[in-house]
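Why do we care about 3D structure at all? Because function follows from shape, and shape follows, mostly, from sequence. That is the central idea of this module. The next example makes it concrete: a single protein chain, its amino acid sequence, and then its structure expressed as tokens.
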Amino acid sequence: MSVIISAVKMKQSIIFDCNGEKLLGILHAPAIPRNKGVVVVVGGPQYRVGSHRQFLLLSNHLATENFPSFRFDYQGMGDSSGQQKDFENIEDDIRSAIDVFLVSCPEVTEIVLLGLCDAASAILFYAYKDPRVTGVVLLNPWVRSIEIESHALLKHYYLKKILHINTWHRMFTGKINICSASASLFSILKNRCIKRINSSVESSAVSLPERMLSGYKKFKGHSLIIISGEDLTAAEFVDTVSSSRSWKEQLHNNRVTWKELSEANHTFSTKLWRDQVSLWTTEWLNLW
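And the structure:
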């Protein structure tokens, strides 16, 4: 307890402007801050505390290692004013949060952006555009499309269920509604067929994974990617990477650290999983 008290100088609420809207952020400032600071970008729909208080707890942990951090609600979320935006339109919010963080904690000279799910995707759209950002932490990045989701459900859910003996036992004992399960599977297969039929029409549009990869290629800083083993969103990202030579090449360099929590779910809902994410993050911050 004495370590935490001596390490944390203050936890301060800050109201700042973004395009005329008032956004709320929380600064965690250690007594002797290091030059690397973490800005937490929250995936939607969530606010600055995060699922299971993950981002609050993470910021407290970072402070014990003397890393300052800043959590904030972007427009239309939590206690910030304005219309709610999706993750593809929050670049101004991120930039404004970094601006106020650097003013509030002038010891910081390098910014690390951390985000879960679609916030991780938003970070890849933004990071390369801001030279102040030298690192990113991506938790279960969002790459979803109809085709990617259908493939992941078939591979990681239905196939696993079909091969599990308990599924057959429940089916024969009437605990699984065969008609309902079959209808769900048929719907997924139909969506995949429709997607393939329309692929020539949509070929001119750049997909979400391609746009994320484009931003990632332009980013020259360090990155930590943490993947949950029991999460469909994470499985979709892993499948996207494994099926793309360009993604593999991008991730195969000494600036990228890849970690997997095999038992964890999407939001790291247990203390064990949250603590592991915090530990990996601080270890990674200390490496460069």
